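hiii so um. not sure if this is the right channel but i have a protein structure encoded as tokens and i wanna go backwards to a sequence. like what aa goes where. can anyone help
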């Protein structure tokens, strides 16, 4: 029995990693923006993998607003909640409340059911780049416990046509790309103090391509462009995830058309 259990895990686990060593879109971070993007890209037929360093998903949804079990979302994001079948109830002035556990579960289920693969316990620590001028062409990842141990092990690759930084406040992927490939011409400015309404609007407006092959969604957008933070309201994260999916889908379709035209 034991050898069968072990072999089942090794065979299927390694097949999964082999299969996802090359994808259309690699999303880093399984928070609200990353999971939303994963669903809308996967349902368009793209091969999508989400790399999450924790052994759970949801990012900042669980702790929500100072750990109270309620998430606030504004009216504009309700169509996304309906897509994911997340229930909501009115609070005040166009604001609605959602149960954080339900939001986490249904965003993840929506992404998985659409065909996205979520890989847990995976820390992304670098990008692959190509060309002059450079373009981001994938990422490097290592198991989180190995990374946390401080013992050096070389990471493995995942090649991707597009990489989305959905890592939250620190914009970790854009930050490492900026530092190590300055020719990308990107600067991470760091987020500003709170101004909720403006932040929610700007984060969606600035969502999209940061450099060739590299995109930002969610709080990573605020970090890259020096936008204000919004505090514990999550509609902008969902809208940003949907927006980045639209931008990436349009760019990949355009690149595919260009590759076939002679
Ligand atoms: C693998 C990584 C890595 C890495 C991080 O923080 P998140 O919830 O991100 P968003 O942008 O989808 O949502 C932000 C929201 O939760 C929030 O914090 C808000 C609205 N704040 C407003 C305010 O004013 O404070 O999720 C990011 C995820 C997490 O699960 C991380 O563990 C993961 O990304 N992650 N995964 N490799 N290098 N870095």
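sure thing!! here u go:
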């Amino acid at each position: 029995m034991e050898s069968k259990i072990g072999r089942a895990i090794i065979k299927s686990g390694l097949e999964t990693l082999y299969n996802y060593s090359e994808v259309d879109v690699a999303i880093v971070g399984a928070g609200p923006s990353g999971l939303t993007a994963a669903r809308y890209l996967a349902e368009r037929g793209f091969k999508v993998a989400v790399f999450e360093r924790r052994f759970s998903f949801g990012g900042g949804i669980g702790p929500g607003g100072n750990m109270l079990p309620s998430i606030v979302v504004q009216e504009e994001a309700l169509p996304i909640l309906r897509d994911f079948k997340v229930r909501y109830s009115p609070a005040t002035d166009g604001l609605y409340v959602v149960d954080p556990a339900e939001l986490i579960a249904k965003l993840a289920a929506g992404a998985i059911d659409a065909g996205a693969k979520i890989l847990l316990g995976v820390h992304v620590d670098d990008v692959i780049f190509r060309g002059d001028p450079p373009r981001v062409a994938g990422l490097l990842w290592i198991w989180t416990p190995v990374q946390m141990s401080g013992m050096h092990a070389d990471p493995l690759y995942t090649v991707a046509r597009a990489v989305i930084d959905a890592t939250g406040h620190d914009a970790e992927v854009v930050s490492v790309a900026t530092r190590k490939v300055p020719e990308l011409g990107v600067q991470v400015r760091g987020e500003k103090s709170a101004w909720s309404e403006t932040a929610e609007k700007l984060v969606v407006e600035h969502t999209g391509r940061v450099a060739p092959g590299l995109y930002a969604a969610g709080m990573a957008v605020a970090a890259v462009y020096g936008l204000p933070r919004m505090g514990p309201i999550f509609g902008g994260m969902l809208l940003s995830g949907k927006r980045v999916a639209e931008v990436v889908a349009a760019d990949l379709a355009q690149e595919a058309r260009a590759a076939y035209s002679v």
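oh and The CA atoms of residues 78 and 143 lie 36 Å apart.
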